[in-house]
Design goal:
alpha/beta; single chain; Rossmann fold; 7-stranded parallel sheet; 7 helices
Length: 258
């Protein structure tokens, strides 16, 4: 049991990568705070994991005071808090011409400022328990697709936050902060988005080799398996690190041959 007795907040865990991480945490002996915007889906996750292992909190991360309430839920339900997984994110298409300041601010509020607020609110508990933070970014944070401009900027800012706090909090408070950047992952929401963009319902079964050299894209459970290492004590003193989880090098990739 790599996470035995650890209590972990996983934002955005009613579906997708967050749900997979929460399930893997419980399988490894941990207890989790499930969070999201979908009460019915969240209740299903809690029922699957068991009320002794999971508790649900439904609230928009951009709401004032939500970070403090998430920490309070963890401490009330389980008596402590050992780790935070900042997974929740808005994934919306936009470019220079379609992005206004209201849209951009909303993206930064959820994808960058909410993780900052939760780390700050959780710090007393994390410091007391020699805990850690795992931020879930995106390979798009390095540059981004043409129509993921605001999203990519928010994830690039998250990487800088991870580097900065991974140094300062580790030295000053004994709290490690790291980040994993998933590539293309087949989640419920991603399947729906691509279908809405005109692709066939089973589009993920025939992804071009340029995007999926292995013949498929990533599964949420594969991201969850990697997340456990950073949440467990076995990652030791490592902090301030950014790790890409993709099936090809995102930066400096050799262009495909025609």
């Amino acid at each position: 049991m790599r996470l035995e007795k650890k209590v972990i907040i996983v934002t955005g865990s009613c579906t997708g990568i967050g749900k997979a991480i929460a399930k893997r945490c419980v399988a490894e002996g941990g207890r989790v705070v499930i969070h999201g915007l979908e009460p019915e889906l969240g209740q299903e996750v809690v029922q699957e994991l068991g009320p002794a292992n999971a508790v649900l909190h439904i609230e928009d991360l951009a709401t004032e005071g939500v970070a403090e309430r998430l920490v309070a839920v963890a401490v009330k339900a389980f008596g402590r808090l050992d780790a935070v997984v900042n997974n929740a994110a808005l994934v919306l298409s936009s470019n220079l011409h379609t992005t206004d300041l209201t849209f951009f601010r909303r993206m930064l509020d959820v994808n960058t400022l909410a993780p900052f607020a939760l780390i700050k609110a959780a710090l007393p508990q994390l410091k007391q328990n020699r805990g850690c933070v795992l931020n879930i970014g995106s390979v798009n944070g390095w540059s981004g697709e043409p129509d993921l401009m605001a999203y990519s900027v928010s994830k690039g800012a998250l990487m800088t936050l991870t580097r900065n706090l991974g140094d300062t909090l580790h030295r000053e408070d004994g709290v490690r902060v790291n980040q994993i950047n998933p590539g293309w992952v087949i989640t419920e929401n991603e399947a729906r988005r691509k279908h809405e963009q005109g692709l066939a319902e089973d589009w993920y079964k025939d992804v071009p080799p340029v995007f999926a050299p292995s013949g498929r894209i990533l599964w949420p459970a594969e991201i969850a398996a990697a997340a456990v290492y950073w949440l467990a004590d076995e990652s030791g003193p490592i902090s301030g690190q950014i790790v890409d989880l993709e099936q090809y090098p995102f930066i400096g990739r050799n262009p495909p041959k025609n």
